[in-house]
Amino acid sequence: MAESSIESRRETPESPKQRALHMLLKGLAFVPNLVFAALAGSLLAAPISLLLFRIFPSAVAACIQDVTTLLPAFGLGYLVARKFHHSVARWIWLPAIALWLLVVLPDVASYTGQTCGLSRSQYFLHEFVFDIRTNCDEGLAWPLYTLPTLCCIGYSLGAKLAARRHPPNQE
């Protein structure tokens, strides 16, 4: 008798309140995934970046660094999605890019070029894309903004691949 009451609860459709709560909790799952992807991915990518700058000339290492930053985060996203089957992990790149744009666009728009003589596009490429050291800034733009964003993109790509290769079991 107890089993039939449990089965009947499973078969009953969710109420609108339950559905709204479920959607809210699923939406809030973005926050820990985003923080985990950015922090853990950045910590995993840091030794690779340091190694690149020791092996290659600075200009070459700065260009390669964007791609190599994705690799540890990709593996992390793959493992997390395979283990926990978080569907939100595949979409972490959206808020990461939105936050990056909210920080980067005003900074680039307010750049005047008086202190270092670079054009606005050169400033954007040097400070936010390739981590090329200039005298324009403290050099913290890439590690504080671009690195976590790249890690979130890699995390999402890994989670997407894990979801395709290992779909959750439907019981």
Write structural notes for this entry.
- By secondary structure, the protein is mainly alpha-helical.
- It has one domain (16-165).
- The protein is 75% helix and 0% strand.
- The chain contains seven helices and no strands.
- It has helices at residues 2-11, 16-28, 30-55, 58-84, 93-110, 120-129, 141-165.
- Helix 3 packs antiparallel against helix 4 (58-84) and helix 4 (58-84) packs across helix 7 (141-165).
- The longest helix has 27 residues, at 58-84.
- The chain starts with a helix and ends in a 6-residue tail after the last helix.
- 28% of the residues are buried.
- The model is unreliable at 3-8 (pLDDT under 50).
| β-strand number | 0
* Molecular shape: flat
How many structurally independent domains? 1
As a percent range, the share of strand residues is under 5%
User: Termini separation (Å)?
Assistant: 22 Å
Q: Supply the helix-strand structural class.
A: mainly alpha
Order of helices and strands: HHHHHHH
Radius of gyration: 21 Å
Return the average pLDDT rounded to an integer: 79
> How much helicity do the residues have?
over 70%
Number of helices: 7
Low-pLDDT parts are: 3-8
Sheet bearing the most strands, described? none
